[in-house]
């Protein structure tokens, strides 16, 4: 292409183009929110008045005329017109108006002119979503002259139609009139018709402006000249319900306004900037006693809404007005240590202030909740009675209506934190004892510590007693015939006493229940459960025999005297309840013979203790054998043939072997184990009130 041909091509229009109809089509407006276009128009009027106030003193005023279906001549003479649907809304303000700058911002489809104060540049598209057109007539000042500018804004590609401007009449006042003309039917049927209700909705939407007294006069008027002054409405119906508090986070003051909302769907806290909510959070996770549901007040119901405002928040809102440019992560430890202001710190202070403002209401709710929880704790969770007594303030903040299982978990958390605090206090007292400055104060702290320490000891004891009661009840339940008329498998019973296929290096003492058989069995040097001998590191025995439980005891572990120590083995064997297929001289079907074979295997091997030293298992090493199984006819026949002796209560059998090795062998039916455990522990259960 030649240079001459190139210069013949006209320069393209580089101005950005927008299809207004497409913008409107892509704008979302729920049909249940038909007043949102009105709110957008009022917001623009407020901003326009504020712009003018920077140039001169102005008494801001916004008039909202509700235009209803029917003859205007007829409507103006009627005493009541609220039954007539609203088809258009006129908004008149005395702000800066549609001067050249504001007209340019209006034409620009995605203007960011008001982004710093929360404007998103889509208000006019929202209006065209619900109305057929917008009529604008603005009288504004330019070069010390008053200009009148008029146009229509429609849902078309161009958007602006019938544009005109001229010099205004000499006596014309600076005003701008916006007519939201002709509601679309799908939105009109959702518009409230009552004058006062529309005024209330306006106050609710712009509540922060009213609270901070930064809103111009707003009048909502019917065609019969009945009107509502929104400021007066706020003073009479809203202001008395608003509570206010302040809190300080280094060098910055924050205000919190607590209001009642009759339209919200949950209790919320709003972090605001420039009179608008930027970030909101549910309050139920911060103050569970507010509950998930609305609070009843006479015949009405409401949710609390808390608004946090501050110059700090105004100065740190991001450009999109969807967040803030200070740390908002919820890493509690990090947020506590840092010196800067964070959302975590603001939230905690705000929640504390809400707690203070609602102290009377929350105290009543929490007292009711505590009274509801107390019977459960007294009767079913007695291990937490001391927690109720010493940490009641924390218990009061638990969620209401927790089931027993979740209440148990939450109380356990409180107890754990309490124990940590007591341990930390103990460490401080020990350290401070080296340099006591105030003996009386130290004594008081020490006495308080001892009281807390003793209370915690009682909690641990109560928990262990409850654990025993639970285990005994569980064993009782498992020993009963189940729904399919079958008794529980022996592995299930086994696990109640000690976890199967494990040893005492793997299982904490509180997780085994050998006390069901004998209190002394709780203390041992080593215990293995259901492992073959050659798999037990502590035993050097080449045998694949597998006993249910083998315990290697050091007498010193449970002896109360100073006699020379000796070693012993305890073997426990479980059989399925009500089993009745035992045969004598059959190692697979005779539990006594099985246990005797275990003893012989041990006597032929070597044993190492924990230090690696060898211990000789000699014939005079005592063996204690407990065979736990029901004494059915087949087993009783074997016991009598082998001349086992009945126990005094006639429930079990025992024998003593001393010729080739020393062993005490006792056959205990499950019923005897259960009854003996119940008798031994009854005094504990009675004292705790859980019999």
CATH architecture classification of the largest domain: 2-Layer Sandwich
Rg over CA atoms: 42 Å
Q: How large a portion of the residues is in β-strands, by DSSP E?
A: 15-25%
- Largest sheet data: 8 strands, mixed
List low-confidence stretches: 5-16, 501-505, 525-566
User: Could you tell me how far the N terminus lies from the C terminus, measured between alpha carbons in angstroms?
Assistant: 105 Å
CATH superfamily of the largest domain: Histidine kinase-like ATPase, C-terminal domain
Shape field: elongated
Short summary of the structure?
It is built from 22 helices and 25 strands.
Key features of this structure:
single chain; 691 residues; alpha+beta; 4 domains; eight-stranded mixed beta sheet; 25 strands; elongated
What can you see in these coordinates?
With 691 residues, the protein is α+β, with helices and mostly antiparallel strands. The chain has 4 domains: 20-230, Heat Shock Protein 90 (2-Layer Sandwich), CATH 3.30.565; 242-357, no CATH class; 369-476, no CATH class; 490-682, no CATH class. The strands form 4 sheets. Strands 5-4-3-6-2-1-7-8 form an 8-stranded mixed beta sheet. Strands 15-16-18-19-22-25-24-23 form an 8-stranded mixed beta sheet. Strands 9, 10, 11, 12, 13 and 14 form a 6-stranded mixed beta sheet that branches. The radius of gyration is 42 Å and the shape is elongated. One of its GO terms (molecular function) is ATP binding. Keywords: ATP-binding, Nucleotide-binding. InterPro entries: HATPase_C_sf.
């Amino acid at each position: 292409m030649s240079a001459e041909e190139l210069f013949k091509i006209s320069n393209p229009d580089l101005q950005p183009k927008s299809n207004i109809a497409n913008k409107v089509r892509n704008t979302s407006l729920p049909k249940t929110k038909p007043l949102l276009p009105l709110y957008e128009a009022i917001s623009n009027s407020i901003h326009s008045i504020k712009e003018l106030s920077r140039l001169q003193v102005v008494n801001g005023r916004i008039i909202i005329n509700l235009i209803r279906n029917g003859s205007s001549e007829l409507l103006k003479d009627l005493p009541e017109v609220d039954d007539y649907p609203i088809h258009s809304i006129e908004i008149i303000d005395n702000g800066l108006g549609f001067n050249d700058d504001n007209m340019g911002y209006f034409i620009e489809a995605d203007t960011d002119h008001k982004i710093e104060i929360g404007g998103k540049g889509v208000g006019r598209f929202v209006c065209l979503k619900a109305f057929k057109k917008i009529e604008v007539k603005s009288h504004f000042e330019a070069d010390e002259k008053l200009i009148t500018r008029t146009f229509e804004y429609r849902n078309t590609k161009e958007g602006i139609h019938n544009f005109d401007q001229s010099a205004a009449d000499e006596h014309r006042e600076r005003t701008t009139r916006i007519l939201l003309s002709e509601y679309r039917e799908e939105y009109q049927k959702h518009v409230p018709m009552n004058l006062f209700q529309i005024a209330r909705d306006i106050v609710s939407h712009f509540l922060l402006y009213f609270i901070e007294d930064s809103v111009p006069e707003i009048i909502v008027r019917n065609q019969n000249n009945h009107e509502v002054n929104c400021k007066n409405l706020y003073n009479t119906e809203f202001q008395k319900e608003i509570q206010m508090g302040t809190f300080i986070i280094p060098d910055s003051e924050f205000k919190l306004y607590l209001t009642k909302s009759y339209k919200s769907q949950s209790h919320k806290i709003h972090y605001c900037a420039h009179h608008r909510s930027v970030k909101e959070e549910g309050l139920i996770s911060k103050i569970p006693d507010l509950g998930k549901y609305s609070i009843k007040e006479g015949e009405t119901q409401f949710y609390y809404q808390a608004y946090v405002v501050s110059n700090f928040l105004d100065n740190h809102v991001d450009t999109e007005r969807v967040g803030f440019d200070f740390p908002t992560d919820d890493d509690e430890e990090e947020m506590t240590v840092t010196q800067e202001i964070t959302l975590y710190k603001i939230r905690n202070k705000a929640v504390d202030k809400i707690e203070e403002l609602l102290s009377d209401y929350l105290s009543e709710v929490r007292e009711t909740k505590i009274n509801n929880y107390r019977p459960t704790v007294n009767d079913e969770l007695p291990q937490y009675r001391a927690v109720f007594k010493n940490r009641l303030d924390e218990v009061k903040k638990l969620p209401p209506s927790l089931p027993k299982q979740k209440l148990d978990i939450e109380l356990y958390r409180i107890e754990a934190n309490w124990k940590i605090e007591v341990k930390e206090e103990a460490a401080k007292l020990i350290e401070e004892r080296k340099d006591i400055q105030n003996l009386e104060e130290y004594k008081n702290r020490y006495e308080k510590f001892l009281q807390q320490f003793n209370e915690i000891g009682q909690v641990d004891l109560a928990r262990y007693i409850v654990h025993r009661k639970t285990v005994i009840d569980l064993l009782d339940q498992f020993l009963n015939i189940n729904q399919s008329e079958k008794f529980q498998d022996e592995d299930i019973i086994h696990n109640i006493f000690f976890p199967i296929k494990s040893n005492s290096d793997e299982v904490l003492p509180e997780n085994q229940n050998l006390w069901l058989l004998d209190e002394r069995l709780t203390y041992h040097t080593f215990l293995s459960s259901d492992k073959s001998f050659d798999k037990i590191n502590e035993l050097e025995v080449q045998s694949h025999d597998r006993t249910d439980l083998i315990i290697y005891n050091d007498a010193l572990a449970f002896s109360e005297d100073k006699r020379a120590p000796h070693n012993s083995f305890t073997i426990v064997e479980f059989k399925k309840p009500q089993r009745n297929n035992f045969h004598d001289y059959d190692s697979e079907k005779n539990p006594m013979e099985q246990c005797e074979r275990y003893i012989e295997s041990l006597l032929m091997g070597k044993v190492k203790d924990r230090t690696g030293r060898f211990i000789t298992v000699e014939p005079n090493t005592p063996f204690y054998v407990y065979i736990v199984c029901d004494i059915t006819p087949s087993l009783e026949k074997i016991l009598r043939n082998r001349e086992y002796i009945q126990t005094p209560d006639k429930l079990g059998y025992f024998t003593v072997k001393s010729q080739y090795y020393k062993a005490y062998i006792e056959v205990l039916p499950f019923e005897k184990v259960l009854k003996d455990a119940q008798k031994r522990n009854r005094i504990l259960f009675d004292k705790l009130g859980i019999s």
